[in-house]
Amino acid sequence: MTTNDEWQARKEAAVARGQGNASPIYAERARNSEIWDVEGNRYIDFGAGIAVVNTGHGHPRIVQAVREQLDRFSHTCVMVTPYDVSVRLAEKLNELMPGDSPKKSIFVTTGAEAVENCVKIARASTGRRGVIAFNGGFHGRTSLTMALTGKIAPYKHLFGPFPAEVYHAPFPIEYHGVSIRDALRGLDDLFKVDIAPRDVAALIVEPVQGEGGFYPAPVEFQRALRGICDEHGIVYVADEIQTGFGRTGRFFCTEYAGIEPDLMTAAKGIAGGFPLATVTGKAEIMDAPLPGGLGGTYGGSPIGCAAALAVLDVMEEEGLVERANRIGAQFAERVRDLQREHPRTIGDVRQLGAMIAMELVKDGDPSQPDPELTRAMVGAAAKRGLILLSCGIRGNVIRFLPPLTIPQEQIAEGMDTVAKCLAELT
Ligand SMILES: Cc1ncc(COP(=O)(O)O)c(C=O)c1O
Questions:
Q1: N or C: at which end does the chain have fewer Cβ atoms within 10 angstroms?
Q2: Which atom of ligand 1 is nearest to the CA of 275?
Q3: How far apart are CA 245 and CA 9, in angstroms?
């Protein structure tokens, strides 16, 4: 038998520290919402590989679809010899994206690539240069998406210079004293100080900031942004990489705002753990780049597309969008009970579907984040058999992102562990 510690030592010697790992737990196998490590320890998974296995680890339907696709072929390159599963998936995504305009899609491999492609498409379509993103937003680790990301450590630190023509506006978070009005005023100032709206190609927003700390973009704010984009001919990009595929209790989170984005990214939950990402958008905008200008060798892998079609079937058959709301309610109840027990430590609780967070502070003060306690919670939970994730621009948010298939008893069991860790550490 090998141990987690042995693997961690080998990993640290072989893999650069930049690709860090949250806990020194080496996965041996995983099933639905449980993971077993190389020592045989069992963990409840409240992270789903960062909102990826929404349908649970190793869902038999998805495994079967992948096996069948593997038997047919694993790669021909969608840009050389395309295949049925990619066309069928594009048709489904076009139907699922909010809004009535005709839609088209493209396939890439990672979330960051999807975001980059939104910028390319928006620039090709408008002939403009600027891109607006928001403070605290996260859009990826490539050069352009790092520039769009509104958080320095660890994403941007040491990596400049960044691509030009990227601007950041304030994101409304009442808990931190930024109202919708303040945020919109900030955007207006940006139009006066940094870039004229007629030079802006795209504005990109997460309907709930993910890595930034699970701060929802209020519906009114999203609607106001849609209005500003309409007024100035700016392409509205909804980054649904973390919020999509049922996570927030709607198929796509933007549905809550009742608006139609011009372009929308999807990744993570789309293919049950197989690397696939997409951009879907209004057909006339999507068709602006010339043939060959978008894509890549592995974009739209047939394995990923077959997995994604199976994910869609499972989501429908098992009612997972609705289940995200029930799971979320169960989590929120427990987290709010904990907040009543620890009012000076759990400063804020946020929940939209199965995207649940608690923000840890000192003395009940929003301006005194407690990233040390947050880190300690993740470590203590791992020791007690629970995978927990943190996030937040201040590093002080525990986020709960379970598979949408998690049984109720495991939510209760995992939350008991959270309660024990909190009691132990405070
Ligand atoms: C909202 C959002 N955009 C983009 C990304 C980048 O995706 P990837 O890590 O697949 O490149 C992420 C990943 O966490 C994300 O949450």
A1: N
A2: 10
A3: 36
- Best of 268, 397, 399 for a ligand 1 pocket test (most atoms within 8 Å of beta carbon): 268
pLDDT above 90: residue 224 = yes
Whose CA is closest to atom 7 on ligand 1? 111
Tens of pLDDT, residue by residue over 76-113, are: 999 999 999 999 999 999 999 999 999 999 999 999 99
Residue 392: per-residue pLDDT: 97
**Tens digits of per-residue pLDDT, 332-369?**
999 999 999 999 999 999 999 999 999 999 999 999 99
C-beta 210 within 6 A of ligand 1: yes
Q: What is the pTM of this model?
A: 0.98
Among 110, 138, 142, the mutation site with the greatest number of ligand 1 atoms within 8 A of its Cβ is 138
Each residue's pLDDT tens digit, 242-257: 999 999 999 999 999 9
**Cβ of 214 less than 6 Å from ligand 1:** no
User: 247 CB under 6 A from ligand 1?
Assistant: no
Q: How far is the CA of 6 from the centre of ligand 1 (A)?
A: 30
Is there an atom of ligand 1 within 6 Å of 138 CB? yes
